[in-house]
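Input structure tokens:
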């Protein structure tokens, strides 16, 4: 007698983790510091953002700001003149992430030392295994 085992279909990653697309948009390497800076400091010119996020390159800042504008998280305003003045500010949609960032900041304050200790413990365990 043949018994067939029913195998559940493997869900698409976005279905398995519904926040995946949001994490990809909001928590990329440079998106978070840009949104955090615009939320904390208000409207900023490109150079101001560049000075506040010192480790970002101008190209990456430009590309990330364009993506954030495309996704509706940042508003770009161009003022005519010579030279033209461009300012960036967080949009209402971007501001709606403030609660998420606050929860993560609180979690970080409460748990970052625990994570660092877990890493040290892991490294100690790994060293013991390597020595054997």
């Amino acid at each position: 007698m043949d018994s067939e085992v029913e195998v559940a279909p493997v869900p698409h990653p976005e279905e398995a983790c519904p926040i995946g697309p949001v994490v990809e948009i909001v928590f990329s390497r440079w998106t978070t510091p840009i949104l955090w800076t615009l939320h904390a400091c208000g409207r900023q010119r490109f150079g101001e953002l560049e000075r506040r996020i010192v480790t970002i390159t101008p190209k990456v800042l430009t590309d990330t700001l364009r993506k954030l504008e495309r996704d509706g998280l940042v508003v770009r305003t161009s003022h005519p003149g010579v030279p033209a003045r461009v300012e960036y500010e967080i949009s209402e949609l971007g501001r709606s992430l403030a609660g998420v960032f606050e929860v993560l900041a609180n979690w970080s304050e409460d748990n970052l030392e625990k994570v660092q200790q877990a890493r040290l413990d892991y490294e100690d365990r790994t060293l013991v295994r390597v020595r054997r």
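The chain has a mean pLDDT of 90. The CA atoms of residues 67 and 73 lie 9 Å apart.
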